[in-house]
Amino acid sequence: MFFKAHIKKRLTDFDLDISIEIDKEEYTAILGPSGAGKSMTLKIIAGIEPSEYQYILLEDINISELPPEKRKIVYLTQKDSLFPHMNVFENIVFPFIARGVKIDQNLLDKVIDTFKIRPLLHRLTKHLSGGEARRVALARAICAKPKVLLLDEPLSFLDFHIRLELIDFLKKIPQAYGTSIIHVTHDPIEACLLSHRIYILKRGKIASCIKPNLDSAQLINIVSKISPLIEALK
């Protein structure tokens, strides 16, 4: 297995205790209501939140004791955290500069084209729309060359048509960049449209795991089954 994680943490209302695994270039969702422990799971995997226990394997290497910058994992929060005093180009090349390495021009050109941000390169990020900012944040994350990309509600607070556009962009990432994705969401349709595997989280525990492989009719059927389950978990 490409990635495995078993983590435990005592939270205010319950104990987080979950095990997940994902394959290389797999898109995985963690689905559940607000307060179920989804975001905390990502923070522990990223190494930015302590835990009582964590055992995390990436390509059979134990990364549990490594600092965040050594884990080959990038965590993208709900807030895009772009530098407002920099333009788009300066933001997306920042991962190279921060690591003190030469800019990978091939990768840079590829992400610029993948996320269709070439017309935005010289614009200050504070002047971007919500959808544009999210695309730039994804491009910058990919420039850090993560083996695992953690996405915390990446489609939140966006108009419906922008969400559909971003779903198309997100679908391209695993195979195009050799990156596995763990995507946290409360939206079962979003999870089914994107994911090879869905973990359903209830109060810090995995309640179920499914592997959708869907056409439109199947999607409608499975969402009709998942939605009541999500409501029951609240």
How would you summarize what this structure contains?
By secondary structure, the protein is of the alpha/beta class.
Characterize the largest beta sheet: strand count, sense, and whether it forms a barrel. Answer: 6 strands, mixed
Strand % is 15-25%
Which CATH class of the largest domain? Alpha Beta
Class inferred from helices and paired strands? alpha/beta
Write the topology of this structure.
Blueprint lengths: L2 E8 L4 E8 L4 E5 L6 H9 L6 E6 L2 E2 L10 E4 L11 H5 L1 H6 L5 H10 L15 H14 L4 E5 L7 H18 L2 E6 L2 H7 L2 E6 L2 E6 L5 H18 L1
Structure, described:
The chain has 234 residues and is α/β, with parallel strands linked by helices. The protein has two domains: 1-59 and 147-160 and 174-234, P-loop containing nucleotide triphosphate hydrolases (Rossmann fold), CATH 3.40.50.300; 82-146, no CATH class. The chain is built from eight helices and ten strands. Strands 6-7-8-3-9-10 form a six-stranded mixed sheet, with helices on both faces. Strands 2-1-4-5 form a four-stranded antiparallel sheet, covered by helices on one side. Helix 7 packs across helix 8 (216-233). The chain is globular and about 45 Å long. The two termini are 32 Å apart.
